[in-house]
Write a structure and sequence with these properties.
The structure is a homodimer. Chain A is mostly helical. Chain A has a single domain, classed as Farnesyl Diphosphate Synthase (Orthogonal Bundle), CATH 1.10.600.10. Chain A contains 15 helices and two strands. The first copy, chain A, has helices at residues 3-23, 32-42, 49-59, 65-86, 103-106, 109-128, 136-150, 155-164, 173-198, 203-230, 233-236, 242-245, 251-255, 257-273, 283-294; strands at 96-97, 100-101. A two-stranded antiparallel ribbon of chain A has the order 1-2. The two termini of chain A are 12 Å apart. Chains A and B meet through helix 2, helix 6, helix 7, helix 8 and helix 9 of A and helix 2, helix 6, helix 7, helix 8 and helix 9 of B.
Chain lengths: 297, 297
């Protein structure tokens, strides 16, 4: 990663961290355990890739920083909720996330379920709030697109397929690609496209960002699959070797590590090309595509 | 219940049932188990009290029927999601709901968690859709109010308090009242107020509906507590005697059955009075308040 990209990522991650701190509930009542779990699940960790994509996308259209930050933070709440629920014993049963005990380990299962529910709900509360954008049409459109990306025909649908097909050996590359487009791709698509919604961009730029997002999302997931095979828990902050242990079909199990790596790099290059028309303004997004496939965590 | 109210409730319940059928996802892919669980959780059951309140409230302001029905149906999705998650083994661990096995018993825990997540998300998708209301300001306001009602400082917060205080004997009537205002009251408040939002009503009618909702919500909960003591599973379609078995403080354990019944009737009468200014147009809502405290299920 270039020092410039590292600094930009760190800077945006700081801003998202502070926004999460402000936008998440706090207080001392009998429900404070819920607030603590929501904060534990969201604060102090993660690459903040999705909010970075949203913030960078918004910069292409000169969207007000405060507006973009609220949308980026709401999006991160949805991502964090999905991790909390996916980690539950009934789902992936993970003990470690971002180098810390998962929420149900640190608190308990009931609190983890509720904290996830509340994070998801808070995301829509933040987006629908007039403080997010002066144009209610933009707020409603953002809520609609986020719900589509996160719901039964997006992220949650992808997680259902992932659970349903675990241990199944007849998944082909088409089925895995569809699974990942839903499970991780839909939210990355929202991240990349949200700036165009906030900036009321025309169909051309919007389509370019969608193309970027789709290639980036697959490249990101292929790299995740590689890290599960080749990474260490110390590097990635989560358990590794899980896919093989569960007999899960992944891009790596289907293509082999070398072909998966080559394919990820090709997709990342192709992602960057979608942004050619934006010129130097999209330099960081193109740089992100390169980094996504070279990262070690 | 008067035959007129029974017919009106049944008629609106039919319309909500058909709308759920249209608005919930369907299909044959590997994620179809998720769609089936969402449908199992929502279709074919329940009093549909919340959607009825929303539909009747919308009629006071001559809101287009199609608009009100979408909002009422989204609201019912949120209610159904909360039941699915509350019934989970890590929460209330219930086997029976609306006379059928709970979702995690009929499917499995992972599917129940995901079906709840997807129902909640779908509710926001339906509300934010331009088909719901021509005015984006109304859609954004509905999404905002629904998120506030359902989230950490509303329904989910109430459920957290409920779990945290289970078995605790030092809950007083003030604490129980606050718990119920959050856990069941907030969504009932949204139900009653949403018609005023859709109809862009002024502060006077909106405040009257809020007053109605708050008294109705408490009367409803007191009656639920009474049914848990005095009802049968055959009547109520769910397990009874649970509160006492868990040592839960309820309105009945604190006030005794007789005082709780008297208090519920007083609140129901007071709820009806808030609607005096609406005249005969609110006759059904006033009738609902009477029914809520006399019901046997």
């Amino acid at each position: 990663m270039t020092p410039e990209l590292a600094a930009a990522l760190a800077d945006d991650a700081d801003r998202v961290e502070r926004a999460l701190d402000v936008l998440l509930p706090a207080g001392d009542g009998p429900e404070s355990r819920l607030f603590q779990a929501m904060r534990y699940a969201s604060l102090g960790g993660g690459k903040r890739l999705r909010p970075f994509l949203a913030l960078e996308g918004a910069r292409l259209f000169a969207v007000a920083e405060a507006c973009a930050l609220r949308v980026a933070t709401a999006l991160e709440m949805v991502h964090c909720y999905s991790l909390v629920h996916d980690d539950l014993p009934a789902m992936d049963d993970d003990a470690l996330r971002r180098g810390k005990p998962t929420v149900h380990r640190e608190f308990d299962e009931a609190t983890a379920i509720l904290a996830g529910d509340a994070l998801l709900t808070r995301a829509f509360e933040v987006i629908a709030d007039p403080m997010t954008h002066g144009d209610a049409g933009v707020r409603a459109e953002l809520a609609l697109q986020l719900a589509r990306a996160a719901g039964a025909e997006g992220m949650v649908g992808g997680q259902m397929i992932d659970l349903e097909t675990e241990g199944s050996e007849d998944l082909d590359i088409g089925a895995i690609t569809r699974l990942q487009r839903l499970k991780t791709g839909a939210l990355i698509l929202f991240a990349c496209e949200s700036g165009a919604v906030m900036g009321k961009a025309g169909p051309g730029p919007r389509e370019a960002l969608r193309g970027f997002a789709q290639d980036l999302g697959l490249a990101f997931q292929m790299t995740d699959d590689l890290l599960d095979v080749e990474g260490t828990a110390a590097e990635t902050g989560k358990a590794v070797g899980k896919d093989a242990a569960r007999g899960k079909a992944t891009f790596v199990s289907l293509l082999g590590a070398e072909r998966a790596r080559t394919q990820a790099r090709l997709l990342a290059a192709q992602a960057a090309e979608h942004l050619a028309a934006f010129g130097p303004a999209a330099a960081r997004l193109r740089e992100v595509a390169r980094w996504v496939v070279e990262r070690r965590s």
